[in-house]
Amino acid sequence: MPIYLLIFAFDVVLMIHAIKTGRFSPWFYVILMLPGLGGAIYVVAELIPEWTGSHEGRKARQQIASALNPMGKYRALADQLAIVDTISNRAALAQEALNLGRFDEAREHYHMILERPLGDEPAYMLGKARAEYGMNRFADGIASLEELKARWPDFQSADGHLLYAMALEGAGRNDEALSNYQGVGAYFPGAEPRVRQAQLLARLGRAEEARKVAADVVLTLGRAAAYVRRNQKQWLSEAKKLAAG
User: Fold this and answer.
1) Which alpha helices (DSSP H) does 171-225 contain, by range?
2) Is 12 helix (H, G, I), strand (E, B) or coil?
């Protein structure tokens, strides 16, 4: 049988499977518009994870589905919120809005959650601050994070501390930003705070200090396990540039 007929039969079987299993959109169109390749993507993203149940398989499926239909999850969460306006539904939509860069919408969702009696939680205040940072409203982000610290003094978040340092830098409060980058860098699970510290030092004309911080990052990651270096690839690359001067 000619190869094109095999590919056609393969695609037809997969399109029928997508229809019967409730995966019509977007997979039917992906398989139809990309003969052979679309079917292979469908198998990798949907069928293999279904057969194996592996975490990596599910992750791959989510990544491919997001790439093919980036607004799909957002629309589904918006529909859920329209049906039942709960804190959990609104928080899920707020997080997805953050992921999509819809920062003004995310901020509004988090504000509405925090106004509710059962929504008075530090994680939602942190989400609001992230949205404000994304909107370049650095002073508002700083205020939100300082309110968080005042209201929930026992709440600990390395990501929140890093966000605070970044907001201080955005607001031009460079000395405070450097101090906080150094502080969070001591316990943050990654090199980002120290690299950001080195980048800010370099922008302030403090080249030798920047090289010293960056060189320490390169040395530390050079001694780390291979998977750590892979996970920190972006920040390691930036540190090497700064260390080289």
Assistant:
1) 174-185, 192-203, 207-222
2) helix
Mean pLDDT of 107-116: 97
**Comparing C-alpha atoms, which of 71, 76, 90 is closest to residue 22?**
76
The domain made up of 156-245 has a fold known as: 1.25.40
Taking the domains of the chain in order of start, what are their residue ranges? 3-68, 71-135, 156-245
* Identity at 133, one-letter amino acid code: Y
Per-residue pLDDT tens digits for 207-234: 999 999 999 999 999 999 988 998 899 9
Angle in degrees, CA 230, 235, 238, rounded to 5:
125
* Token digits of residue 204: 């302030």
> How far apart (Å, rounded) are the C-alpha atoms in residues 91 and 127?
9
Report how far residue 192's alpha carbon sits from residue 234's, in angstroms, rounded to the nearest whole number.
9
Tell me how crowded residue 90 is: count the other CB atoms within 10 A of its CB.
22
Residue 164 near residue 142, CB atoms below 8 Å: yes
Q: Which amino acid would we find at residue 238? A: E
CA distances from 224 to 168, 192, 219, 243 (A): 30, 15, 9, 18
Q: Rounded to whole angstroms, how far apart are CA atoms 17 and 160?
A: 45
